[in-house]
Amino acid sequence: MAYRGPRTEYGQQQQQPGGGAQWRGGGGRPPAPPRTALKGKQPGSTLRKPDWDRIQLPPFQKNFYREHEATANRSEEEIEQHRKQHEITLQGRDIPRPILTFSEGCFPDYCMKMIEAQNYSDPTAIQCQGWPIALSGRDMVGIAQTGSGKTLAYILPAMVHITHQPYIQRGEGPVALVLAPTRELAQQIQQVASDFGRASRIRNTCVFGGAPKGSQLRDLERGVEICIATPGRLIDFLEAGKVNLRRCTYLVLDEADRMLDMGFEPQIRKIVEQIRPDCQTLMWSATWPKEVRALAEDFLTDYIQVNIGALQLCANHRILQIVDVCQESDKENKLLELHKEIINEQDNKTLIFAETKKKVDELTRRMRRNGWPSICIHGDKSQSERDWVLNEFRSGRSPILVATDVAARGLDVDDIRFVINYDYPHCSEDYIHRIGRTARSNKTGTAYTFFTPNNMKQAKELISVLKEANQVVNPKLYEIADMARSSSFTGRNTRRYRTPGQPLNTGENTDRPRYGNALQRSNNGGFRAQNNTFGRNPSQNGFVSRPQQTSPFNRNLTQNAYKPAQPSYGTATPTQNGYNKPAQNGYTNAPPQNGYKSTQNSYSGTNAYSKPAQNGYGGSPSQTGFAKQAGGFKRQAGNQVAPYLANGYRGSHQAATQQCYVGAPPPMFPGMGAYGQYGQGGATPYMPPNLYYQVPA
Questions:
Q1: In 373-470, which ranges are continuous DSSP H helix?
Q2: In the chain, what is the straight-line distance between the N-terminal and C-terminal CA atoms, in Å?
Q3: Where in the numbering of this chain does the DEAD-box RNA helicase Q domain appear (predicted)?
Q4: Is 572 in contact with 584 (CB distance < 8 Å)?
C-alpha cells in the first residue's frame, strides 16, 4: 500500500521522497534539513557545554600565598619606587605587594634548587608582581614584552597549585592547562615544566598538531597534571572523547593576542566551556588590543591587570636596531656582507627571518653553497625535522637559522645575538616579536632590518617603534614615510619606486606611460610625485621615450644616456634608416673606431651596414655584388673592422692602405668564390655573413 503523506494547509497530500504517495512508491527517506552552517565542519561543533549549574563540583583550594616577612616590612615608598623603576602599572583591587627576591616567593625547596641551578639572579619585573597574584588564586592579565620571563611567571605557581590538589587518577584530565598558539612555543613551555617538575614528580604532556596522536593519547589516558596544548589538536581530542577537563582548575592562555590573530578564538571558547567556571585563569599577552580585552572580560573574574612598560606596541630597549633602506635586488649581497662581519664575533648565533617558505629554502641553499653553516625551519617541515633543527641551533652546531614567522613567537634560545629581518613583516607587531628573540633574560642583542620601498606602508609604524626605543632613525626612512603619505603613491606603483638618493640605471624607465603619475628626481636625491602623463622630452622624469632608448651595446658610464629628442623612425631621409647621422646608414664609419665610441651614443663598428652609394659589399660605386678579380677577393686589414667579423668591409677609398691575410677556403664551402674589395695581398675565401672566425695567419 502507498504511504500517506502529511497534509498541507490546502488539504493536499505532500509527496514523500521516493514516490511515497504513489502506488508501490516504497516510501523513501525524509528530506535533509537545510544547511545553516558554513561549508565544512566547524571546530568543536559536536561539543556540548556542560550544565555547570546542575553539576556538583568538588571544592578546591587556590590561595597559597604567604607573604614573606621582608615583603611585609617593606615601606610603601620603596614599593612605589620599585614599580616606577620597572614601569609596572596595575589595575584592580587588593593587589599584593611585589617580591624582590626568589626567597620571598616562598616556593618549595625543589623549585628553589632548580632556580639556583639555572643561575637566575633576580626575578624579572613581571615575575616580581605576577607571582604574588598567581599564588593568591586571583585571575590576572599580564602584559609584557617578549623575553620578560612570562613562562616562569605562571609555571612556578602552577607547580604550587598542583601540589595542593588531590592526586590524578588514570583517565582523569589535567589539573593545569596551558594553551599556546604554536607547537614550538608549546614544546618550550613543556621543557620548562619538565625542568621544574622533575623533582616533584609532576607529569606533563604536550599536545599539538603535526605529530602522531598515539603517544599524546597514551599520556592523557595515564593521567598528567599539566597539559600544554595548541587549540586545534586539543579540540580534536575533546570531540573524540579522549580527554576531559573536569579536573582542570588552573588555566593559562599564553600569547593570547597571537592566538586571536591566528583565528583560534572559536576553539578557545569551546575549550573554556568544558572547564569549570570557578577555575583560576591567567592570560598573558605582549599587546593589549580590544580583542584581547573582550576575551579577558568573558573569561576572567575580578582580575588584576599587570602591565610592564607602555600599553602600546614597544620593543625591548636592550636591542640595538639597525635599519638598512635598500632595493630588493641588493638584499642578498648585503646579507652576505653582513655575515662576513658577524662571523668574526665571539657570539654569532643568528636568526634570519624571510617572508615565504620558498625564500627560506633559497636563502639556506645559497648560504650553505657559500660555506655558511645554516639550517632552516618553516611550516612544511615535519615535527622530527623541526626538533632536529632547533636542537642543532641551540647547541651551536649550526649557528645560523633561517625561518618564517612560525618561529617568531616563543622561540626561547637565550644566546641569540643577532636577528636579521631579510623581509620586513606585514605589521610592526610581528617585527617586535621577531627582534624579541634576542636580548632575552636581561641580555643585549642586535637586530638588522632590510627595508625596501615595497614596505613603505609600514615606515611610519617602524619609525614610532624606533623612537620609542631611543634608536637612531635612518634619514631615508623618513623620506619613504613621506612618500607613503602622498596620495599618489598607492597600489601596485609602489614596487617601482626607488630608494631615496639611489641613481637610476642607464636607459631605465621608472614608470610606464599607462600610469598617470611619474617620478621625478628632486634636488636632495629623493623623489617626488609629478602629476603629469608620460613625458615626451627625454630629459624629463628620469627616463627616455622608447625610440630614443640607448643601445644595449653602450656600456660607457661617462656618456649621458638621456639624449635630446632625435628624429623618430620614418622622419629622416631614405638613406638614414632611422638613425641620427644623415650620411651614415646606421653606424658611424670613422676608420679608427673599432667597437665602442667615447663621444657618441651609438655603436661605431661597420658591421652589416654599407655606404648609401654602395649596393651590397664594399668596393667602387659600380660594383653591384662581388668584385671581379682573378685571384679572388681581398679582405681588408683585420685592425680596420670589428674583430673576426666576416662581412664588415670598408669602401674602395681605403684600398691603398689595407693589408689582407690569405686563408685557405673553409672545408664547409669548397670551391666557392671570395668577396671583398681591391687591395694588397692574396685572396680570402668566401665566408657566410655574420660568421665570426679566427683569421688564419
A1: 383-395, 428-435, 459-468
A2: 111
A3: 100-128
A4: no
**Distance in angstroms (rounded) separating the CA atoms of residues 400 and 373:** 6
77 and 125 housed in the same domain = yes
pLDDT digits (tens, 9 = 90+) for 659-689: 444 444 444 444 444 444 444 444 444 444 4
Q: How many CB atoms lie within 10 A of CB 182?
A: 22
Residues 99 and 222 in one domain: yes
> What's CA 691's distance to the chain center, in Å?
50
Cβ neighbours around 695 below 10 Å, total:
15
Domain boundary among 285, 308, 331: 308
**The pairing of beta strand 527-530 with beta strand 518-521:** antiparallel
Count structural domains, the chain: 2
Q: pTM value? A: 0.60
Contact status, residue 163 vs residue 122, Cβ threshold 8 Å: no
Note down the domain range covering 446.
319-486
560: closest CA among 519, 518, 504? 504
How do residues 152-183 score in pLDDT, each as one tens digit?
A: 999 999 999 999 999 998 888 899 999 999 99
The reply to whether 293 and 432 lie within a common domain is: no
Residue 351, beta-bridge partner list: 401, 419
Whether residue 351 is contained in a domain is answered as yes
- CA-to-CA distance for 271 and 274, rounded, in angstroms? 5
Clarify whether residues 248 and 387 are in a common domain.
no
Amino acid 536 reads: R
In this structure, which amino acid lies at residue 488?
S
